[in-house]
Amino acid sequence: MMDIKLIKENAKLIYKIASKYSKYYDIEDLFQEGVKGLDKARKNYDPNSNTKFSTYAFKYILGEIVSYVKNDRNIKVGNETMKLYQAYEKAQEYLTNKLNRYPTLEETCNFMGVNSSLVVDAIRKCEFTTSLESSLSEDDFTLEQVTGIDKTDQIDTLLDLKAELENLSEEERRIIELRYFGDYTQSEIANYLNMSQVQVSRSEQKILKKIKTNIAA
Description:
Blueprint: H1 4-18, H2 27-44, H3 53-71, H4 79-99, H5 105-112, H6 116-131, H7 143-147, H8 155-166, H9 170-181, H10 186-193, H11 197-216
């Protein structure tokens, strides 16, 4: 029988992992899947090991939640949404060649004659489902890459970082994603977002400072 005390002790961890998918699923349903992973971790954990239980349980909890999401047919993207996403990619490619720089989201949407909110929704849904095809148990970034704080062994801190990235504005998140995950230079980002290199530099420093402050709070 599952230990209620253990669930309470790790509830924060489970909710943080589940929150990544809460835009598409009920957070409580995801939490219950995470509890299943916690139980598996409990059964396999060696208390004599040097690994903290929360660190050990992380992949089990994430694995159960990801498995639930993957197996749920409701996450399948509709044909119209996929067509819109594909049209967006083609429009971006065309405008990039025409303008000799990356177009902004607004420029692309105007060219397509489609409301930007519809395009953003299609992008998020398609990128979300595409990401499920890769191993979601592996992190795309480290704390040191984004904040300069080398604490990648601290699961709670890493999850706090991911939560902070989710709380950024669309433009702020795009800057961080391109800079640290896409390996773009500030000049390349400036062209992509139709900004100056100075604006990108100032925004990047401001965003990183905000993330560091919120995590340390």
